[in-house]
Automatic annotation (TrEMBL):
UniProt-recorded name of the protein: DUF3795 domain-containing protein
Length: 60
């Protein structure tokens, strides 16, 4: 189900393929997904660095 289906007065089956509002929504979603990926990548690298540091400090 499309998120615009319930709130759009001009909705008809298949209209999202050429709808400007739908394209804007998809673009905003892509930007948001990329921001989340960047956030997760940054903190994954940070946690990996801390983990490496703790492993180097631990006795073998």
């Amino acid at each position: 189900m499309l998120p615009c289906q319930n709130g759009c007065s001009a909705y008809c089956s298949g209209c999202h393929k050429n709808c400007g509002q739908w394209r804007e929504f998809q673009a905003r979603q892509a930007i948001q997904r990329q921001a989340k990926k960047n956030y997760l990548r940054y903190y994954n690298e940070l946690c990996a660095a801390v983990t490496r540091q703790f492993r180097m400090l631990s006795p073998r």
